[in-house]
Design brief:
The protein has 202 residues and is mainly alpha-helical. The strands form 2 sheets. A two-stranded antiparallel sheet has the order 1-4. A hairpin with a 2-residue loop joins strand 2 and strand 3. The protein is globular and about 55 Å long.
Length: 202
């Protein structure tokens, strides 16, 4: 049985966000001196441009989620959290059936909690600290002004912490993507929008 689980905009948003996050990570770590790819000046320029694209995508996605009611899929719940956690920690290695509950939502209870944390904590942290970075020096009335901050060290540390949180999520996300009915079924669902086996949705 096939059913549509991801609408066209969701897929566009997912893949565009993934590309921007990876590009921001690449250029961001180069700005920090961890990588050498574009060169420092170009890395800063590309990072700043991509950050505005990321913010624009967030705003469009927020409007879409509110307008369509899709935001409800991300509301955290404690129902079946223990069952879901047990599956990922033990059941998956014993080839036990997935707890599922796909008929209730496209996201399981643990996914709801993780995604809510990303949307309420990590993404706002990245955007807020990033804007502080971009506006630390600003031009007003032909004069260069400066935000009343002692320095950027705390903001830099928080921004970097958020970046590592996003990278940790990405690694876990890539692994869990392979835990569907087959190793590629979840990937196919995000590419095509359709899921073949509803009872095994992740």
């Amino acid at each position: 049985m096939r059913r549509q689980v991801f609408q066209p905009f969701e897929r566009f948003w997912h893949w565009t966000q993934a590309a921007l996050v990876l590009f921001l990570a690449l250029t961001g770590f180069e700005v920090h001196g961890s990588l050498s790819f574009f060169g420092f000046d170009q890395a800063v320029r590309y990072h700043n441009l991509a950050s505005w694209g990321f913010i624009a995508l967030i705003l469009v996605a927020m409007f879409w989620h509110l307008a369509t009611g899709e935001w409800a899929h991300y509301v955290p719940t404690t129902k079946n959290v223990g069952e879901q956690a047990r599956y990922y920690l033990i059941g998956i290695f014993r080839n036990e059936p997935h707890p599922g509950h796909a008929e209730l939502s496209k996201l399981n209870p643990l996914q709801r909690i993780v995604y809510a944390g990303l949307k309420v904590l990590v993404i706002p942290l990245m955007v807020t600290t990033g804007i502080f970075y971009l506006s630390f020096h600003f031009v007003r009335g032909g004069q260069v002004g400066q935000l009343h901050l002692r320095d950027l060290s705390t903001i830099a540390a928080l921004h970097t912490l958020g970046a590592f949180a996003l990278m940790s999520f990405l690694i876990a996300h890539l692994y869990l993507m392979t835990t569907g009915r087959t190793a590629t079924s979840n990937l196919k669902a995000m590419l095509t929008g359709y899921e073949e086996d509803v009872s095994d949705a992740r």
